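Researcher: Please translate sequence to structure tokens.
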Amino acid sequence: MNSQDIKNAISGALVVDKPVGMTSHDVVQAIRNGTNLRRAGHTGTLDPRASGVLVILVGPAVRLSEYVSASDKRYQAIIRLGSSTDTFDAEGLVTPTKDPVSVTEAQFEEALKTFVGEIEQTPPPYSAVKVQGRKAYEMAREGEEVELAPRKITVHHLEVLEWTPPEVVIDVHCSSGTYVRSLANDLGVMLGCGAYLVGLRRTKSGRFSLRDAVPLRKLQEAFTAGNWYQYLIPAAEALGDWTAVELSPDEVEGVRHGHRVKVVGEPTETKVRGVSTQGELVALMEMVINEDGTREWQPKKVFFTD
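Model: Translation complete:
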């Protein structure tokens, strides 16, 4: 196998513990440089001021991005009460509250409860959301009024971890697309004292947690040593929360050409990952019901080419 064949065979995820101060794209670029692989991409932006779990897909596994990006996220957020900012975080222009903060922990927790469930959230004006083809933060920096439409998100769980006013540390378990900065600002509005985000650490992204993450510095050392492959998580595991359907060699051959596979048993899921007997990701498949009532798995994205 020549070097190009080896490159083509590399497919999977690198779970990085992103340091504060780098953009998500900076991390992707560092991984491209370290692996000499052109195909690499993150699965959900993490602000430069935030740290924690950033999942980078490399090789053919980048085609899993839309599925991995849609996974739930978990954060530890530090919120400061008593002021608000135009960016909803510590980088913005601070507007202190006129009155002293007199919020109790019980009042804070009561306010938190109102944000659990499916809610509408307006993204921060300083965000990468596009308005008529332009990024909102570019418009905001130029002094333009930015009106962003609210979007539906799901907040699964909110919990106070530390109560040391004016700062509060909370655990946030939410759907993809949630802005924790907006959550902090909205809490401040509801409590009447103002609030903004001063620290953010992503502790989980989909099935990957900080336990799976390797500090970028350590990964860069492994690039130099040439043993970075030890940190590569196989593509089949990137969607480890999806049910796996094992395919026989004949079925693998059929799926490669877009052929359906008969559904065995009574699965509760309508989307599964098809894997080979060696555990390699073959395809993402979706259930279809034929006119005669029989059910089959229809390949939607095929990865296995050998």
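Researcher: Any highlights?
Model: The CA atoms of residues 89 and 197 lie 4 Å apart.
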